[in-house]
Design goal:
single chain; 311 residues; alpha/beta; Rossmann fold; 2 domains; 6-stranded mixed sheet; 10 strands; globular
Amino acid sequence: MGVTVSSSLTLGEGSTPLVPARRLQERLGLELYLKCEGLNPTGSFKDRGMVVAVERAARAGARAVVCASTGNTAASAAAYAARAGLEAIVLTPAGATATAKRAQARAAGARLLEVRGSFDDALRLSRELGEREGFVLVNSVNPDRIEGQKSVAGEILAQLGRVPDVVALPFGGGGNVSAVAAGFADAGASPRIVVGQAAERATTWASAIRIGEPAHAAHVAELVAAGRVEVVTLSEAELRSAWQRLSLEEGVFCEPASAAGVAVLERLSDVQGTTAVCIVTGHGLKDAGAVDEGGSDAVEATLDAVLAAIG
C-alpha cells in the first residue's frame, strides 16, 4: 500500500507512533490509541502525501509547486520543494495562519502571499495558477497527495495487529478523510470512520480546519451515503476541551484541530467497549499561540520561595 519515493527527497515521513491513551480510555470506556502524525518531519500528516506530489511534479519538469494553505500544507510544500530544488508559491488567507507554520514555510524559502479573502479564495487562485505551464498544484485535490496519505491506514493496521473498530480524525478540507477511507479499502478493512468538523467552519479557533467550503465535500458526502464515513459537527467548546485533555491527561500536545477525533469519541455514546484509533494530525508547536501562558509565576531565586509557590 506504500508509495516509493526518491531517497534524495524523503525526510523520513511516516512510521509515526501509535500510542495507547490509558487515561482517556479509562474515562471513555474503550481501548484507545493515538496515531501521532505530528511527529512527521514538518509536524503534520501532510508530509505523507506532499513528498509524493512534489516528487512527481519535479519529474514532470515543474519549475514551482503552488498551494493554498491554512498553514500545514504550506510548511510541508515548502520543505519538500526545497529538497527538490523547486520554488514553492503559497497563498494563505490574510491573518488566518498560525505564525509557526508561516515561519516554517518562509525558512524553507517559500514565497508567501496573503490573499485578502478566505481559504476558499486562496484555493481558487491556486487552482488557476496551477493550470499555468511550469506550475503544479499540490493541495489535496492533486491525487498524488491522496496516494501518499493513504499509507497511514496500513501503518495503523500493522501497528495495532488488527482492524480497529473505530477510526476518528478531523474533517477540514476532506482530503485526509478521503485518503484514510481509501487506505483502509485498499487493505480490505472496513473500520467505522468518524470525522469531526467545526460547527463554525469559516471562523473556528481550530485554524487548521478553518475551511468554509471543503474541496472534497462531494466525495466525503459519497462516503457518508455509502455508510463508510460519519460526520460529527463539534462546538468550539468541545474542540477546546478535547485539545486540553490530550495534553493534560496523555501528554500529547497537538494543535487544536488535531483533537477533533477525541472530541468525536467523547460525543458518541455507542463507542464504549470498542477499540478506537484517533489520528492526531499535527503537533502543538504548530499553533503554540493557542496556549494560555498566564499560569506562569515569577519567584525569587530561593528554595523557600519555590516551596511557597507550589504550596
